[in-house]
Amino acid sequence: MKINIDEIRQAESTLEDINEEIREARFHDDKEREEFMLKEKRETLKFLALAEKEKHATFTPGPWQIEDCTPGESTGLRFEVGTKDSVIARTTDGWKEAHANARLIAAAPEMYEILQEVERVCLKTPEIGEKLREVLAKVDGGEA
Hints:
The structure is a single chain. The relative contact order is 0.11. This protein is mostly helical and about 140 residues long. The longest helix is centred in the C-terminal third of the chain and has 27 residues, at about 95-120. The protein folds into 2 domains: about 1-55; about 60-144, no CATH class. It is elongated, with a radius of gyration of 22 Å. The model has no long low-confidence stretch (mean pLDDT about 80). The chain has 4 helices and 3 strands, in the order ααβββαα. A hairpin with a 4-residue loop joins strand 2 and strand 3. Helix 1 packs antiparallel against helix 2 and helix 3 crosses helix 4 (about 125-140).
């Protein structure tokens, strides 16, 4: 099942509404409404957990390492980035560029994790949060 970023945002918004409904039901001592909303909350949380799991399954988990794989003497003209079991990328742009690109690519999983944390903090600053969500959506395969 492919989940896009808009569905996740909608579910998060729905969760806020559900929590408000639960508070109201408790205030009015409406047990039937409270039970119904608690069931809705569980379903929404299941969806969000599935979305989080799917999001993290879209790329090879880190950490990623860099290896100089230049044929013959090591001149630093070609680098591989990957895990011990697979190659993620190869760079061949000349020594400085190839090594810098390899470092950037290798840091991608860690940067992604940090950006997810920053996104949660930026919810209070809508313009920054929105720009960050656009970048994360690109990584997650959604529309930017």
